[in-house]
Specification:
The longest helix has 35 residues. This protein has five helices and no strands. By secondary structure, it is mainly alpha-helical.
Amino acid sequence: MNRRHAARLGISTSRYLRVARSVRRGEAPDDPVERAAAADLISRMRRGPGSVSHRWAPRLLIGGGVLWGAAGVVFIADGAYGWALYAFAMMGLVLVQLVSLRRRERRLEAAARGLGI
């Protein structure tokens, strides 16, 4: 997939992946060819299912966290403390994913501002 996008933009795959890493960090490249690749990457990342721009993604993560938390409470009431610990750990991981999603979106916007799009 990356090879095809890199070939369409006229750059090597390794260079394309380097641009992708810089975009994920919130940096905009200086080279005009890399800037075109970065603009393409930003537009593709905004359309992706893991983007905050999709209304359902944060809600789904919050809902998953609530369900894992409820399962943990049920396990505690049932006396299954090991399973409760597991459920609360999963709840924490889901909620950390929500925070990570928002941080990724801020970095993507910083790269877009650097490119002027």
